[in-house]
Amino acid sequence: MNFVGGHILSIDQFERGDIERIFQVADAMKPYALRHRVTRVLEGAILGNMFFEPSTRTRVSFGSAFNLLGGNVRETTGIQVSALAKGESLYDTARVLSGYSDVICMRHPESGSVAEFAAASRVPVINGGDGSNEHPSQALLDLYTIEKELAAQNRGIDGLRIAMIGDLKYGRTVHSLCGLLALYNNIHVTLVSPVELAMPEEIVERLRQAGHQVVISQELTNAISHVDIAYSTRIQEERFQSKQEADSYRGRFRLNQAIYTQFCEPNTVIMHPLPRDSRADANELDSDLNQNPNLAIFRQTDNGVLVRMALFALVLDVVDQVDKHSHPVTWHHNRGV
Ligand code: NCD
What we know:
Elements: H1 16-28, H2 30-33, E1 37-39, E2 46-51, H3 57-68, E3 72-77, H4 90-100, E4 103-108, H5 113-120, E5 125-130, H6 136-151, E6 161-165, H7 172-181, E7 188-192, H8 201-209, E8 213-217, H9 220-223, E9 229-232, H10 243-247, H11 257-263, E10 269-271, H12 297-315, E11 326-328
Helix pairs in contact: 1-12, 3-12, 4-5, 6-7, 6-12, 7-8
The structure holds N-carbamoyl-L-aspartate.
């Protein structure tokens, strides 16, 4: 795909070579994300960061990624504090905001809304999550993390064995991740969810059509016993009719250190897009896993900055100029791990 000036709305846009390109650029962003060097390559550029649904890491990491490239960030958070609450259309909002920004990241509760917004925008739009539909930048950072975790075991993504666990019906991160995995070879996917929260049929079909093995299960311990990656997700309670309905699924697939030790292979990597539901009746990933070196959740969040920097650099066509506009960092920068 040609990234320059384009929108990033769906993983359907990507071929395998595009993903490799994004990952290669993400790798090159490390000195800046780690604060070894500073670049001003996007000096003067403005990111419109429009988050009309709750967000911590996606919003802040898109903003930080843009700042790390030297650009400025303008934000709106929440429909109720924007003119959408006054009945303004996505079309008008897009025409207005694209006059103020050089690129826009947007999250919105309705599937398809970000694409509708992008159609009216005069600048590139990146989908930060549209309802239960897609979350392409999260899928990219998840796959980037998978690649790094497996590389540490001298393996590649082809041949991956992964279990996806939890709310697979409404979880947009797993929808997009399955789409990316469909581009690779010989993937074994085990989908663990309550029957009512199963992965949409078209996504399962897409994996099967691509020649991958898909197993559907309602039981955690068997499913996690022969995988490289256990990818847990939160019950997406904001998409349910009632809180009681969402509550009835909470805590079904709890993973803690004792279960991990008993059932997982020693190198199984634990992932989650976050936020994890840490309430006592949920505990998707118990805090007793925090000392487990295979818990990759905070490596995922760190990687998110690299991948989002890469998307900005590609879309705004500055990949080859990043280093030219850089210098060593001037402040204390021992970030630790
Ligand atoms: C996810 C999302 O918003 O879809 N969060 C994120 O962006 N990392 C997952 C979730 O909210 O459960």
